[in-house]
C-alpha cells in the first residue's frame, strides 16, 4: 500500500526500450554475439524483390509507351495533315490556304525537290554508264573509220591534182607521199604500184630528188640523191659538158668532165636522157672545183636544189619520160 492507500504492483514493470549503438561503440563480431546471448544487435535491411520489381516495370512500361506514341505520331500526323489539306482544298478558301502553304513550305520543299532531282539524275547516270561506255566505243570506231576515209579522199584529190600538173611535163607519173626519212625514203600512193620499177626517177616539178629502189606494196623505197648507195648516172652542165653524178665523201659531185672545157662555178647540172630518166631534170649548181688543174678529167662539188622530205611539194615517180 502506498501513502494514498492504493495497492502497489508486486512485480515491477519491465522496460522494453531497445538499446542503441553509439558511434564510438564497436559492432561485435559473430563470436562476440554468440557470447552475448540475449543482447539485441541491429542487422541491415535488404529490400525485397517484390518491392524493387514494381518501379523497374513501371519505368520499362513508360519507355515503351513513349516509343509507341512517337511511332504512332510519325504515322498518323502526315495522314492527318494530308486529310486536312485535301479537305481545305475543296472549300472556297482552299486557294488562299494553298497559297499560304506554298509560301510557308516553299523554302523547305524547293531544296528538297532539287536534291531529290539531282540524286535521281545521278542514279540514272550511273545506271546508264555501262551502256554509254559501249556507245562511246562504237562512236570512236565510226569516227576513226570516217577519219581514215576522209584522209584517203584528200590524198586521192591531191594525187589527182599532182598528176594533172605533172602530165603536162611527163607522159606518165604516179603521185607519192613521203612516210619516213632514213637511209632510204619510204613513200606510199593511192594509185596502183604495178607500173613502178627500180631506177625510175622521183621528181618534184622538174627537180630530180632520187630513184626508186624497190617496191613492197603499198610501200615504195626510194634512194635520195644524197645517199652513198646511189648508183652513178649521166649528167651535163648548162654549158653542155657531159659527166656523171655521184655522192662521195658526203658531198654531191659531178665528175669525168673533159678538161678541154673548164667548169664554170654556179653552172647548172642537168640529167642526160636514158631509158628511164627524162632529159634536163635539174639537180643543182656547181659550187667548187675539187680536181687538180693538170688532171685530164675535172670534178666539181654540187649544191642540190632540193631534197626529198615529207614537206616536198607534189613528188611523183616518172613511169614514162
UniProtKB/TrEMBL annotation:
Pfam family, one: MreC
Membrane-spanning ranges: 59-85
Keywords: Coiled coil, Membrane, Transmembrane, Transmembrane helix
UniProt keyword annotation of NADP present: no
Signal sequence bounds: none
Annotated Rod shape-determining protein MreC beta-barrel core domain residues: 193-309
Stored InterPro entries: Cell/Rod_1, Cell/Rod_MreC_2, MreC_beta-barrel_core
Keyword Membrane attached: yes
Coiled coil (residue ranges): 129-156
Name of the protein this chain belongs to: Rod shape-determining protein MreC beta-barrel core domain-containing protein
Amino acid at each position: 500500500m502506498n501513502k494514498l492507500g492504493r495497492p502497489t504492483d508486486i512485480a515491477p514493470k519491465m522496460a522494453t526500450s531497445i538499446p542503441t549503438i553509439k558511434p564510438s561503440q564497436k559492432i561485435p563480431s559473430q563470436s562476440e554475439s554468440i557470447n552475448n546471448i540475449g543482447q539485441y544487435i541491429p542487422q541491415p535491411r535488404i529490400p525485397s524483390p517484390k518491392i524493387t520489381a514494381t518501379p523497374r516495370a513501371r519505368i520499362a512500361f513508360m519507355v515503351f509507351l513513349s516509343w509507341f506514341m512517337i511511332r504512332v505520331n510519325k504515322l498518323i500526323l502526315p495522314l492527318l495533315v494530308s486529310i486536312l489539306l485535301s479537305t481545305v482544298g475543296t472549300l472556297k478558301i482552299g486557294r488562299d490556304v494553298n497559297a499560304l502553304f506554298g509560301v510557308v513550305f516553299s523554302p523547305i520543299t524547293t531544296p528538297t525537290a532539287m536534291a531529290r532531282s539531282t540524286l535521281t539524275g545521278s542514279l540514272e547516270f550511273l545506271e546508264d554508264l555501262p551502256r554509254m561506255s559501249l556507245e562511246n566505243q562504237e562512236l570512236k570506231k565510226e569516227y576513226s573509220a570516217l577519219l581514215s576515209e576522209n584522209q584517203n579522199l584528200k590524198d586521192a584529190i591531191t594525187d589527182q591534182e599532182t598528176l594533172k600538173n605533172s602530165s603536162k611535163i611527163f607522159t606518165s607519173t604516179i603521185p607519192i607521199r613521203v612516210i619516213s626519212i632514213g637511209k632510204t625514203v619510204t613513200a606510199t600512193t593511192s594509185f596502183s604500184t604495178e607500173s613502178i620499177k627500180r631506177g625510175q626517177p622521183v621528181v618534184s616539178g622538174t627537180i630530180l630528188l632520187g630513184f626508186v629502189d624497190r617496191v613492197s606494196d603499198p610501200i615504195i623505197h626510194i634512194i635520195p640523191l644524197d645517199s652513198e648507195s646511189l648508183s652513178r648516172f649521166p649528167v651535163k652542165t648548162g654549158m653542155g659538158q657531159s659527166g656523171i653524178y655521184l655522192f662521195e665523201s658526203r658531198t654531191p659531185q659531178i665528175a669525168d668532165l673533159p678538161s678541154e672545157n673548164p667548169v664554170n662555178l654556179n653552172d647548172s647540172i642537168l640529167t642526160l636522157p636514158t631509158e628511164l630518166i627524162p632529159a634536163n631534170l635539174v639537180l643543182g649548181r656547181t659550187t667548187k672545183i675539187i680536181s687538180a688543174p693538170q688532171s685530164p678529167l675535172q670534178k666539181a662539188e654540187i649544191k642540190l636544189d632540193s631534197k626529198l622530205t615529207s614537206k616536198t611539194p607534189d613528188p611523183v615517180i616518172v613511169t614514162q619520160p
